[in-house]
Specification:
Strand content: 35-45%
Structural class: mainly beta
Distance between the termini: 65 Å
Helix content: under 10%
Amino acid sequence: MPLPPAASPELSGRVELVERGPFRAGDWVTMHIAYTVGAVTLVPGSRLRIGLPNTGWSRPRVPHPRYWEEEAGGAVQDYTPFHRVNTSADLGSGIPARVELAVTERMLAPNLDPAHGYWRWWITATVREGHLAPGDRLTVLYGDTRFGEAGARVQTFPEPQINIACYVDLAGDGRYRGVAGAPIYFDVLPGPPVRANVVVPSVVSPPVLAAVALTDECHCLPGRAAVPALYLVGAETQVRLNDSPWPQRVALSVGEAIGGIEVRDETGACWGRSNPASLPGPEGLKLFWGDLHAQSMYHSGHSQRADHHQAEWTKSLSCGTPSEVYEYARDVALLDFAVITDQGACLSRGWEPLQEAANLFNAAGSFVTLRGYEAGVAVGHRNVYLRGSEIEAPHDPGSFSLHPTALYDFYRGRTDVLMIPHHVKVWTDWQFHCPELEPVMEVYSSWGQSEDPSLERWEKGMTPGAGAWEAFRRGYRLGIVASSDTHVGMPGRIYPGSRQWHTPFGGGVCAVWASDLTRESLFDALRGRRCYGTTGARIVLRFSIGSHGMGSEVAGWSPDRPREILAEVIGTDVIEKIEVLRDGSVVHAEYPNAAAASLTWRDDSPLGRTAVYRLRVQQIEGEMAWSSPIWVDAEQE
């Protein structure tokens, strides 16, 4: 479907945004979207449809009629006072008409350039009585504060050339045409630096370097602005930082890293505090943090039916060049690793640039990337990860399928490929699973949690038969990770509300226990399920049964022999509870009410054929962590 036809302002009228922008990310605003009627009078049934940005913007809430339309009459409509309102219509004085507003959230049409066709809030103003004559002015106030609302919130991340669409149905017959002045383009800019990400290694041994990066209030790379004098403060250290937002590194003692450091300004106000750290454990592994599910400007969406980025599109379903995405992950979020997994990238012109960027930014020992892409289809979404560095040409979209069975056939037998199903609470059909290629699944992201069937941290519908609990019920041996999936080109950015209103959660991060920071080591650790996921907090989590760590399959266990569960948790806040789950049910819980805790618990109950143990941690402020399981198999008689 093409866009509705354009028309001259003499026929279809003209629209303007009174506040031209730019707007600042995360601000609360009121927008006056003013439409002037053209040469054709708008009569009852005529409609004006305004398409607002949707991703990260406030949901328009319009006045709610009290009665059926058949009962309404006169120029004044009776509205209920108990529905929230932040959007209204103003006809000015002397215009003999009544206009009713309605809001829907949807795409314009499949396969259109996302600059025009992607998800929007559509405000429809329908003439119910009277008429709007040529030259009359209808103003829609988005972010109207008269009803007690703070306004409308601008998306919380910077983006150039966002637009507001506008179409008019002159006769009320469903034939829309473009309006002069639309699309209305404007920019969203970052705010000034007001906070700091402060990161130390989660497992420390000398020498120790702390990293500091400044961000705006919404955790974005800040705009140019004066920065007050800032100091990194530890038990033994006080270092004046420069005013650059880019990462600064400061040497610390092991004790300072474990005790915690802060960035403060001259008034003593804290801009950021470091994550928890621990000494090396007997397993000799280090703990690395990353985001396995980021997107760039080449991301498409299977819901548009075109399952990869089209060459003629002027905009994507995400933000940022591949270089900008990796720079944010490395220099702002201060991650150890990141992967761009654009939908259908292996079929598009972006595939080679994406692989080249992954290889360019990969630096063993400091920041690691993998080549990857998303394969989202109606029976589930999976990300595909490639261990090596060889640049592949794009596959033929006419013959290469993203369906899981086709991918299993294509990659089967390769040890340099793994696949991770994600937001498995929706779409996922678990009849499609390949243990050889799928060692872990993503149970948390900006979509919410897919671990259990509850509505806690979940605002969407669910697909029957989907969910992590169903995978475990089927006996699948899947580890657990978390990622961001925010579509804003900022891996590791933990900030709520980056996507549509039904995806309100902050992104997650993946923790990997590995011997060193290399592609090979991280990839092998994921394949070995030595990993866990959190809601974004860098919670240190160790979990074992005897000498067997998370992700292990323990064979030959005597059915009558108890299992001793060992855990160590170091939180970013007070730990509210640590739960031990066996076969999906909580069998033991402890409530430390402390920032660090150890757990030792013995399961004396009969083993049965197999027992699946895992941990779930929750902090007092709501941050969570989920361990990969340990499978204990009874010895065969």
